[in-house]
What we know:
Blueprint: H1 3-12, H2 30-39, H3 45-57, H4 63-67, H5 71-78
Amino acid sequence: MTGAQIFTKLLNLDLNYHDFDWLENQGLSEFELLISVILTQNTNWKNVLKALDNLKKENIASLEQINTLSNLELATLIKPSGFYN
């Protein structure tokens, strides 16, 4: 199973996004929640928000849009989270 297929399956899960008390209702979209849960495994929340901000600045708001990025482009955008190798 590819990474994109895993992301798609995760997005299709019927999760209760309100159970993430640690997010303190920061108004994140479901896409941002999914990406932040993955990115926070390697860094602190402050750096995850920097990576999410980079994605927002490039209007990346879906897995389909992430899939259009080259590895270098994606690595550059999420570098603050520590996932760039």
